[in-house]
Fold each of these.
Amino acid sequence: MMSAPATTLQDIIAHAKEYGFVFPSSEIYDGLQAVYDYGQNGVELKNNLKNVWWKAMTQLHDNIVGVDAAIFMHPLTWKASGHIDGFNDPMIDNKDSKKRYRADQLLEGKAELLTNAGKEDEANALLAKMGKLLGDEDLEAVRELIISENIVCPVSGTLNWTEVRQFNLMFSTKIGSVADDSSTIYLRPETAQGIFVNFLNVQKSGRMKVPFGISQIGKAFRNEIVARQFIFRMREFEQMEMQFFVRPGTEMEWYNKWKETRLSFHKAIGLPAESLKYHDHDKLAHYANAAVDIEYKFPFGFREIEGIHSRTDFDLSNHQALSKKKQQYFDPSIDPETNKPYGNYIPYVVETSVGADRLFLATFCNAFTKEMVGEGDKQKERTYMKLHPALAPVKAAVLPLVKKDGLAELGQEIANSLKSSFRTVYDDGGAIGKRYTRQDLIGTPFCIAVDYETKDDNCVTIRHRDTMEQERVPISELKERIGKEVAVERILEAI
């Protein structure tokens, strides 16, 4: 039997647009680079992913609550967090092509080529050297390293590089009616700081006891030098973050716990274990004492979809120093070593940070399925979206065999009876085989066929997306049967 061809990123992009998942933003004006809109099916899938993440955090854990902080924050927030002084990427231009690149990504690309060629030691040595030079902020040496490694511009094919410059990734704007320096504010580059500045508000109003967590889903903005690989890296994106506040000295225990918990989440939503792996950070961010990425195997290789970081007390301590407002927690529990209360301390933080758009892309890539069906001369390729039923944009489609003889009216009645329980659509356009295919292509797990026998036995035929098997089911059982399969509980139970 012939196997279906391997999936490429272009396959994913084309399918996402063709079937209403993701569109280029402002496409009638030729689009805006690295900005995308979610279509009618994409917004449902993304909302389902956000919903299951939110429930996995706030519903499964008694000590985690949520907030929704403003995008605009006081500018000193970003001074305290280090973003104003240190949120930079190394930028380099090719003088011949006039194209701009991130210097570190050029070197990482060369390391990936070396790895693919079986020269993993050379690749690791190159990455280690790059990490040291960037850590030392020796940008001229970074340029020399690019040239010595013969890394040419992909467009011009030349080594005619400019110097390397640091480029701050924050978008700035003005607030108020007078545009002067004092009115400059920033679009947030991450959602975490909205949690940190509300640490005491949540702790006191919710009477929270350490350890506890605060979750948030929200937009963030980064003026990426090179945004690429579809929605994997965008200038406007959405994060799902949870900051978990712990007693100093216990952070590694919680760090390891959250590593395992978050990997279980990704498996529970349907991402296979063989397509997931941990990647420990060699070079830690300024705020971390441990960091690991959960990576998914995209068509373009393993890339990060979530980071778990032990952030120490960096954020709360800096906010305390700059705001002159204490960010301490009084812990009345007894220290077994001193037999006294732990007392006042600034909590340490373990962070879990998921890119909602990257999780969407991983889920989409994993679900996109091409397979050969049939035998001999009748064999053909079948494409469908193998989404977890709880994540699918549409849970069930009601399809009357024909429009006449009362089947259309009966089908609409069935669809209306299910809509209050889960997203159901009614479709009577065209041959029923083509309607099955339409639903396969957006990932609908159950199609309900209404035929002439339905009028006599009050039963319908459910067609299962993945196997294409069909079974006869009483109309009275549809809501319970399908409702159980598409419920978010199926994912939460698996975490």
Amino acid sequence: MDLFENKKEIIYFFLIAGLIFALSVGLKYYNFTKIKAKPYLSSQATLLASEQKLSKNGKVYYSNIFATPEFRIYSYAKAKLEKGAYSIKIPTKKLYFKSYLKGMFFSAVFDIKAISTTPTLRQKLVNLVYLQHQSPKAGELYSALFFATPLSKELRSEITNWGIAHLLAISGFHLGLLFAIFYFLLKRPYSYFQQRFFPHRNRDIDLSLFILALGAFYLWILDFTPSFFRSYLMSVFGFILLVRGIKIFAFGTLLLCVVFALCSSPSLIFSIGFYFSCLGVFFILVYIRHFGEYSDFKSKVKMLAHALCFEFFVFSAMNIPVFYFFPQASIFQLSVIVLSYAFVVFYPLSIALHLFGFGGLMDSYLLDFLAYATKGGEIFIPTWLFVLFNLSLIFAVRYKYCAVFVALSGAFIYFWGLFI
């Protein structure tokens, strides 16, 4: 069955969604007015990163990222701060509602005092990861991979050179792998008890519900990271639609998840990570719509061809928005077509090694690999082209030639920017 039976249901859905969105924004504005009523806001915060930088005059300063229960604050300081918990004060005079709604903004921070707090579960897990690595850089990499912690400028640059930022940003790819891992581990034990005590139960539904519950717990640990939040919502909606016999691989399903996510968290409107996450799923659906033939699964040669073409299609189609926000380009980014499949082995292996206390086993090879890629240049995308790209997505859904043109345009810009 289709998601909506008629246009009236679509209208009702968007009216209700618009009302919920307005209420969510209104609640945010109410909280904002309470903050603005005071000259400064006192809050407890966790220092996520303190990175050294140089001013135009050659003076050293530090860029700090503080995380409070409500938002993240970017600020500058003359002295380096160690990661930990702090009591801080923020002036509210120059705090605007748009910045507050984003959930992250730049602000002066003063009266900074280190405080002693009980580490959260996430902080304890991050520390356990770091303890397994002699290199802080490796600990930082795995901490970002497992718990979405910030990256230093150096590591961020190396990851961009390889074009694997999407592999490190926890999203639907990771959720799918985690789902497969848990299903594989639980399938036999559950079947054993099912056959003896509750044969009337549906194994796939019960295991899916249990794994989704674990996913919700992981989402809470990650503090509702936007990309993973979207992925989790899609998996929950997909499960509900599947058991009700409604079509899953449809653009309406993606739209439903996006609208629901924005209604529950309006700040996602300003999240680049959320935008990329949704866009990646969109192009997966576009490829399935225009090139996915069930008969091709009967041929190993065609399946292999699809595996390569699919990765190249998504890689190329994503180039324009990626370079619009992150101009750094490298020929090594093309290797992501193969690295995406290698990650299917690397990700569960790295989890297993950390669970058994051998997380640092691959550090030297991994760090050498990351440092091997070099920056090739920068590709700047004008705003008019970025806007045109987003408008063309509407036509890419219906017209195959438009989808191909979007992908080829991205590939052309990539190779032209590097070699011409």
Amino acid sequence: MAGRERVMRMSVEQPLWRALAGYRVLTMVYATGLFASAHDQFARPWVAVSYYALLGVWTLATLRKVSGAAHCTKRFLAVDLTIALTGILLTPLADTAARIEDGAPTLPSIWTAGAVLAFAIKGGWRWAAFASTLVAAANLVERSGVPTRDTVHAVLLVWIASIAIGYVVEVARASERTLARALEIEAATRERERLARDIHDGVLQVLAMVQRRGTVLGGEAAALGRMAGEQEVALRTLVSGGLVPPSRVSEDSARGAAVRAVDEPEDASGPVDLRALLAPYAGARVGFAEPGAPVTLAEPAARELAAAVGAALDNVRAHAGADARAWILVEDEPGQVIVTVRDDGPGIPEGRLAQAEGEGRLGVALSIRGRLRDLGGSAELISVPGQGTEVELKVPKADSAPRGKAERR
């Protein structure tokens, strides 16, 4: 199967940039409205009018600059903060000393906070601390070094809020990078598990069969079988150590398990009858019990479920002996399909699965449980020594397409 899994990335910053763009426009209108309501009290209203004209043009012309971190350059931030500081320092020139002493707002008013917040979102709390400190210094100069209580409160609010927002942005960025990396690892792990299943179901079992048959035939065939056995061990080690995390490696169908092929339906465009995929497994020593009505599943899910059943039967042939019998039972329930594979073999000795995990065998972990996990289902293995083994495979009918495949391009 070609293609890589697509990892969906999200941006935790984008909502902040959109909010900042709206804040800048609203505060520009607010500052202009404050002046309009008290313009007759200004000592030099033409200074304020000139500044507000510049502020309005700048705010509207730079909306794209605050649409994202890529557009918000250091040069823009420097000019933006300069305009805010200029408005603060021009206030004594435009307004009367009496109004300033009474606590009248500066020309840019709360628009200044937008310039500081742009620093916070772009560069984090250190940039925010730098910008807010310059704003605090400009306010002290504007108040002739004797700020009012309201001025102190406003400066502290901008300083604390901008640093807090800058810190939150840094944490959010780190979390976003961690999440993106985790999604990439998960996607890569799913692809590796799929490759490991394919190798296990095909190459490893063929090599094991060649080794066994070569030993029986002897001569040159024995040498070929020995080489096949060496390659099987090397490939198994590579798969378990390089392709699959060791913690996920578990029981594998042992050497000598026969390879069983399931014919894929010609029409893979819609649901298929699971019974048609499982029927070829029936034989002299494999019973097959099915419902009277079709058991429909999405084609990828049905094929994966049938392959898991095949892997379970391979384990029966490999571990339960040539004389063991097996039964396949299909149950079609309203919300899920249950397939049970039961045998009358000796069962699995206690601790055998843990031992197989250490040996890097993949049958149960990948060929069975891995497939069911990708389908959103489950695989339960119950084995009592002397009483056989039962594998119960459950697949939900809703959204039964394999997760890895659904996310691939």
Amino acid sequence: MNNHVSIEDVPLNGFHQLLSIRSGGGWVLDGYVLSIIGVAMVQLSTALDMTSFWQGMVAASALIGIFFGGFLGGLLTGSLGRRKLYFVGPAIFVICSVAQYWADSGAALFFFRFLIGIGVGFEYPVAGSLLVEFMPRKYRGPRLAMLTILWFAGAAAAYVVGNALLDSGRPDAWRLVLASPAVIGVVLLLIRIGTPESPRWLLSKGRAAEAERIIKKVYGPTFSLKNMPEQPTEKKVSLLDLLHSGYGKRMLFVAVFWSCSVIPVFAVYAFAPTVLQALNLKGEWASLGSVIITMLFVVGCIIATRLINVIGRRSMLIHSFLWSGLALLGLGMFSNGSEVLVLMLFGAYAVFIGGAQVLQLVYPNELFPTEIRSAAVGLGASLSRVGAAIGTWLVPISLQSIGVGHTMFAAAGVTLVGLLVALAIAPETRALSLQEAASLR
């Protein structure tokens, strides 16, 4: 009955919706666990008598962990499967978040948050690969893009819950703040129970019978391996294989565009009040501006999610870098402008960069075949976080040494690099099956 219907063209069913929640919950938790340290930092710095060195190390620890976690998670997901690694990230979040409650030094916090970063690094290749390998092509882009929105939702929740706990007046409130992600982690572990392995990964390991059973369970008894547009064969792939198998150019594209899209965002998002004050927004203007910018990042991602299947991946990336870069250029040129002008330019950047933000998860998952997909996503996540860590670390130094105007020009320069790379080699994968999108044709 369904001999000619590809699983890439089926309508969404209950399994797809549940898988979206299972994978999306990981991004909510990622946004929460990475942002919660900023809420607790002032109180914990005083309580633990932390030096500025350890404050900086604790703030950067998770980003360092993501670098290693992305590499490791990508390689292990390719060899051990998606399902087994699906529980590693949430388990690390639960254990280390609870352990932070008893941390008695900056070094201890650095260690636990470094491990949390490794867990976040695992989520990128594991949850993303599992979601994309089940999702029909029509919904693949929007569902992957949705994960970015959920990250910001988790970050917003961290500020709401964290500040509520701090306002309780308990002397150990910061400890409760740092332990709070464990609650979300336990819920995520529970809802991920029962998730099946990816049939595409099983076929890549020669386990056709298992793949067939899962296809029938997910799509119905009339579906079989014949309904899969791609039937990968067993193949061992190393990191060097990835770079020399003809996908090196795509890996370069992913690493560069991902880095160029996160470096200014992490810097702006982490230091929004400081940057706004340097742009002469004081008092209520600075507080209001920080809230508005955070909201507009979410708005930009939502708009991009709605448009991703309308204007296509390549066009969205080019326009995102172009218009967000012009907004940063305007901030550099008018760094002494009025409060309204500065907020308008900052807001324009937050909205327009949404396209590049949501494509961070779409492109890497679409451009590589099953055998190397998780390794490529993990590598992209790792390399982009190196840039993010450096960019975040440089912002206060740059503001002091060359001023806010030139700092904005530097951010615009990073965005320009992303635009040039997008113009030169960004492919279009809209409306393609996963096999077609990953093919080197």
